Amino acid sequence: MKIAILPGDGIGPEIVAEAVRVLRALELPLEMETAPVGGAAYEAHGHPLPESTLKLAQAADAVLFGAVGDWKYDRLERPLRPEQAILGLRKHLGLFANLRPAICYPQLTHASSLKPELVAGLDILIVRELTGDIYFGQPRGRRTAPDGAFAGAPEAFDTMRYSRPEIERIAHVAFQAARKRGKKVTSVDKANVLETFQFWKDVVTEVHVQYPDVQLEHMYVDNAAMQLVKAPKAFDVIVTGNMFGDILSDEAAMLTGSIGMLPSASLDANNKGLYEPSHGSAPDIAGKGVANPLATILSAAMMLRYSLAQPEAADRIERAVQAVLAAGLRTGDIWSEGTTRVGTREMGDAVVAAITGKTITKS
Ligand code: NAD
After folding, report:
1. What is the b/e burial string over 332-344, where b = at least 16 CB atoms within 10 angstroms of the residue's CB?
2. What range defines the domain where residue 220 resides?
3. Ligand 1 center to 11 CA (angstroms)
4. CA of 16 to the centre of ligand 1 (A)
5. Does 21 share its domain with 55?
6. Nearest residue to 49 via CA among 84, 75, 73, 74
7. DSSP codes, 274-312
8. Pick from 210, 228, 262: which residue ends a domain?
9. Contacts of 260 (CB under 8 A, 6+ apart)
10. How crowded is residue 169: how many other Cβ atoms within 10 Å of its Cβ?
11. pTM of the model
């Protein structure tokens, strides 16, 4: 099993180093090779996604990615900015399905903006289509309005569109993920207003016939946004388009309280994927040894589950993270009165210790 390790910028190298140590502790036959990406790659090779890094990612079974970006690169022309590396990897690797779990660990319920009883034990998976929808539809642009009440005025427009194969493949990802979890999919649309999403609803309903063991419900996006804060535990897997998924996944992230805890995966049609924490490169705390490595460690667990077919190893990591939280260890972002504040390295040490069966002591 070949893994491309792309640490990136800011806290990326610190948090990825801990995830790599956790992966090594599993003693699986994993071949890991590291390459620069983002600002680090621009410094070394003059491009955020050099050919050698892209080749490594293409040859690997999965990519473990830290984060990219720093304010100091804001002056660069757009194609050379660190964030372009993510778009390039998505495009070249054909990553169309974004999976973002929102899990609220019982020990961290106080960090949520909702009442503890609404979020304790929350475990939602948002499956967002990543390459279509109004974000990429053509034509788009600015022009003089050709007709209507404001004919002759300057206007801007975008095009919302989805083809049948694009909807089918994301629906399959959602139904297959639901089979490994609570066996329920909520397809979020705006079929009452948008033709694109009436079509989305029709196609998801057709694909569902192949998954009789999974329950399917349809929900309008405005209602879904409401239900996410009213009764979030009623959801299992949510599948939706690019724009609705963009918004709902951030809303769901906030239910859990800390961005430092949230992993993510972006998959292609063969379950090859790129795994990364949901947060950015946090330049404000980079190099201080205080970043929370758990989102990256949990991304490594997702990688084992979705791309490397090692569900037991994924479970071992997730159980180890829970054990560390239960032992009261916290990085600054999730610290609260009565718990023990630790740094990035100590948090990694504790997860490794929990995996290898050593006791974690609360100092
Ligand atoms: P950010 O997610 O990097 O940071 C937001 C806040 O959360 C900061 O206060 C930061 O210290 C904190 N934070 C983030 N991750 C943390 C962790 N693991 N542990 C503890 N605290 C953590 O978002 P931002 O500040 O808006 O962006 C910073 C840079 O990251 C920008 O250059 C942006 O473009 C880039 N970015 C990259 C990605 C990515 O690589 N996928 C995603 C988002 C932003």
Report:
1. ebbeeeebeebbb
2. 101-262
3. 9
4. 14
5. yes
6. 84
7. EEEESS---TTTTTTT----HHHHHHHHHHHHHTS--HH
8. 262
9. 277, 279, 291, 292, 294, 295, 331, 333, 334
10. 16
11. 0.89
| 55 and 122 together in one domain | no
Are 90 and 1 contained in the same domain? yes
Hunting for tokens 């997702």 — which residue is that?
A: 302
Model confidence at 31, pLDDT cuts 50, 70, 90, reads very high
Same domain, 181 and 278: no
Instruction: Say if residue 124 is in the same domain as residue 91.
Output: no
What are the tens digits of pLDDT across the range 147-201? 999 999 999 999 999 999 999 999 999 999 999 899 999 999 999 999 999 999 9
135 is catalytic: yes
Q: Does one domain contain both 142 and 275?
A: no
Q: Is 162 a residue of the active site? A: no
Which residue among 158, 184, 233, 246 is the active-site one?
246
246 is catalytic: yes
Residue 200 sits in the same domain as residue 88: no
Q: How far is the CA of 279 from the centre of ligand 1 (A)?
A: 5
Cα-based angle 319, 324, 325 (whole degrees, multiple of 5): 100
As for ligand 1, residues whose beta carbon falls within 6 Å of it are 11, 15, 67-70, 83, 86, 259-260, 276, 279-285, 291-292, 295, 331, 333
Catalytic annotation present for 230: no
Q: Whose CA is nearest to atom 27 of ligand 1?
A: 280
**Count of the separate structural domains present in the chain:** 2
**Which one of 206, 239, 262 terminates a domain?**
262
> Nearest CA to 38 among 23, 56, 54, 15?
54
- Are both 106 and 91 inside the same structural domain? no
CATH number at residue 134: 3.40.718.10
Q: What is the pLDDT of residues 201-260, one digit of tens each?
A: 999 999 999 999 999 999 999 999 999 999 999 999 999 999 999 999 989 988 887 788
Nearest alpha carbon to residue 97 among 182, 205, 30, 172: 172
Nearest Cα residue to atom 9 of ligand 1? 282
